[in-house]
Design goal:
The protein is of the alpha/beta class. It contains twelve helices and eight strands. It has a single domain, classed as Aldolase class I (TIM Barrel, Alpha-Beta Barrel).
Length: 255
Amino acid sequence: MNPFAAAPHATALSVNLNKVALLRNTRHLGIPSVLRAAEQVLEAGAQGITVHPRPDARHIRADDVQALAALLAERWPHIEFNVEGNPFDNLMAYLRSVRPAQATFVPDSPEQFTSDHGWRFPADAERLAPVVAETKALGIRVSLFMDPDPEAMAAARAVGADRIELYTEAYARAHGTPQQAEVLARYTQAARAAQAVGLGVNAGHDLNRDNLADFLRAVPGVLEVSIGHAFIADALERGYTETVRDYLRQLRQAR
């Protein structure tokens, strides 16, 4: 049973492990361990694992994806594995191989420092439709990384997406400033527009312990948040277990 489906009114925490792999890749010792990080965050109560393997393998590598898929299948078959990336670069090979529960399509180029925008409609519709169809035929839920543009949600649904992931960097920048309410209103409108056409709503990018609850109180029905950079930064000081507990407290407070 999918834990996300079991609790439709709760927001699930999916921990992105890219930054664990980034630190590991600075040496040839295999530490810190991506698998051990996954084990610790799941033992602490996280409901999902996210990775974003890039073509240059700057952090998560092909063998990490395989090993995480095997770990989840063996010990946590109910936990959602979310694999992110650009379906026109290297993502589809991973999806065909490990068949995660969810694929998040992100329109980043190989040279980008980090993801910085969502898909554009109608410009991206024609090329997205066939890869969305192939992914769904593999039994994988498809989420599209999207800017908070209410007018684009019907088009995202029309290409076959099941969910969208709201790109939240603009909110994170505005949090605590006079612009916060105005920016949040745009995310609220986008989420409602997505839900109105039958899309589930995820969110991620620069969410953290300080801004997460405010976002979820304002944006209705978020099913899942994917948090990596801030989570790993917190874990360096607090440890994986306590950091998971902190984020889960934020999710409860938002409810």
